[in-house]
GTPase HflX
Amino acid sequence: MFDRFQAGEQAILVHVDFPDENAREDLQEFEMLVGSAGIDSLCVITGKRNSPHPKYFVGSGKAEEIAEAVKLYDANVILFNHSLSPSQEKNIEALCQCRVVDRTTLILDIFAQRARTHEGKLQVELAQLKHISTRLIRGWTHLERQKGGIGLRGPGETQLETDRRLLRERMVNIRKRLEKVEKQRQQGRRARNRAEIPTVSLVGYTNAGKSTLFNQITEAGVYAADQLFATLDPTLRRIEVENVGPVILADTVGFIRHLPHDLVAAFKATLTETREADLLIHVIDIADERRAENIEQVQAVLNEIEAGDVPQLLVCNKIDKLEDFSPRIDRDDNQLPSRVWLSAQQGTGADLLFAALTERLAKQIVKHNLKIPPAFGRLRGKLYQLNCISDEQYDEQGNCLLKIKMPIEQWNKFIKQDEDAIERFIES
């Protein structure tokens, strides 16, 4: 039922240029997708059209050319760098006598290969089921169809309806399980919000170097490779930022042009980490000639998942591929860090990123020195529960000398308990 690839499959690649920018795809990126899926490219067939052909997507002459290439190279799959309708897939398969896979199915298969966690596998399966539900009829073409007339109806339609029912039931079951995962994530976020721990999420175009940067600053050891969609399952790590304290850093899946909507919907629970983050670190491959287009695509997906208004810190990665370029911080009109130039692979500029995080996150942090008499030990206990004490000493009179730092919102809530008493203990 699923168009799953096996390593070493021989493929014919098909790419069509359209004048419409919204329908245009990138051939180089498509070849990287094919390589990431573990498929061998035998040849690339290109063409130009003003609009897709309703029957073959490409013209009839180009379709014949593809069929001849399949015979010449003995290919076992045709990969299109575009999304095809079920009827177009069926027509090309009938003409070429070869399996046809479009761009959406290829991306889904890469995701299926990369998924490691139970949640990730469920999300990919849900997206695959949504996509294949429109193509289900292709799996039963060997069965008889209704021929009309009593006693002459074949089993094909009955089998097809049964399979559709099973597919719907499976999708409902997966959604219920993903809802449980979402509730667990919400509980984790509520706990972090209660502790006033900021969340920073790494976003960016696929293969921009997010996981390499994540490993560099967290020593997490997550899988990182020079391929598209090396990261699929989200990873959360706790880091310490000066003058801020603990910060949760999330590594997320990379974005790509025309990311299938089924995938965006299926990964809603994962992308919530991005939508509810306090700051987004937008990682950019500064050595990529298409970086401006990639930034636009990432912003489009962020807007789609309602994360477009979350504050961003741009990280220009891979400066080691540029000539005579050293790490630096660019600032906006308010003198806040807006861009950090670094190389995650070589580890240069990571200290500047931490400095930028301090400035972006610490502006709401308050620091105080408190002198708490022995009779107010309960106050010291509450401060320890808030995990905000950075240093503790005692003087000769038994007073507890504390250095604290916490978000200003948390401090305002704390002093509301007994504002006059607490302010009395603050030392200048």
In short: The chain is about 40% helix and 20% strand. The first strand starts at residue 10 and ends at 17. The CA atoms of residues 278 and 423 lie 29 Å apart.
